[in-house]
Amino acid sequence: MSRSHLSPETVAVSAGRPGHLPGAPLNSPITLASALVPGGDSEYGRHGNPAWSAFEAVLGELEGGTALAFASGMAASAAVFDLVPAGGVVVAPRHAYYGTLNELRVRAERGAVDLRLVDIADTDEVVAALAGAAMLWIESPTNPLLEVADLEAIARAAGESGVIVAVDNTFATPLRQRPLDLGADLVVHSASKLLSGHSDVVLGAVVARDPETAAAVAARRQSAGAIAGALETYLAARGIRTLHVRLDRAEANARALVERLAGHPRVTGTRYPGFGTVIAFEVEGGTDAAQSVTERSRLVTYATSLGGVESTWERRRRHASEPDTVPDALIRLSVGIESADDLWADISQALG
Ligand SMILES: *Cc1c(COP(=O)(O)O)cnc(C)c1O
């Protein structure tokens, strides 16, 4: 049966199921195996595991490519950076996820890559930086400043110059943005966030548009060994089954909260790209005021990470590793699927 006509909601629910045979489970089991009987896809647990397949099948179909599970989002990103030839130029957003920037800087310091940081929302600046580049790394919206790139324009320009295009699609998910359709070669996910959706998994994935690139990334995974656990891929596949419902609900909450935040007298600089579940804003009174707001909430959990069913927030610069291009008083709010009114009651009491 051709599945190409199915809508994303149907794909999320139906892709990556075991064959519909008498006695078969509806969900792919968690296979705990370091060694497998020869003759199948894999005979060693670092080379392949049947438990990865459900997650890879459903994510690959949602993004429109071949998905590969990794131990974490950063392991997935590192496998993609490994595709850059020695000393190759990588163009990347100045305000990307701090872990990504850190990994690129470590590589640049030892000469493995030549790093060119750009304002990813400035299409002309990005296009001008592509000359002689090996890879364009896009994060959109960016974490935590929520800048949005003109993905189609910069991916097209990069493709015309033979530059490999990779997109960190963690914030948008394939339900809001399908980078491979817009000209990207690779998509990277921190599946620890919205895809899993319950703050109980650390997992990553790479999705490649063509099979040769997928094979190159799979070779990096097998060689470097940053492989996913069977339990984590099971939980992430289960999370994706409800992604569309969670995302619709959290996004509706985010839209309701953005309006109320923007109208609050103590709130400044509200950022929201118009879709997704993350809002950033600043609080009048600076660092200490913002920090104490995040510590006063009762319903919104004061914690890092994002994309869970429960709302969380934190002042990003409380982490020493967050770059100082992020305002000191910036609070990143990850909106969950609770009642928007209950969330606002809590947020407004915390704002005081
Ligand atoms: C969290 C995050 C990562 C890193 O993913 P891990 O699963 O924590 O390794 C990468 N990119 C973005 C945008 C993230 O939010």
Concise overview:
This protein has 352 residues and is α/β, with parallel strands linked by helices. It is built from 11 helices and 12 strands.
Note the main sheet: 7 strands, mixed
Tell me the series of helices and strands, N- to C-terminal: HHEHEHEHEHEEEHHHEEHEEEH
Number of helices: 11
Question: What's the N-to-C terminus distance?
Answer: 57 Å
Choose one word for the global shape.
globular
Structural class of the helix and strand makeup? Answer: alpha/beta
- For the CA atoms, what is the radius of gyration? 20 Å
Heterogens? pyridoxal-5'-phosphate
- β-sheet strand percentage: 15-25%
* Unreliably modeled segments: none
Percentage of residues in helical conformation: 25-40%
Physical arrangement of strands within the biggest beta sheet = 1-7-6-5-4-2-3
What number is the mean pLDDT? 97
User: How many β-strand stretches?
Assistant: 12
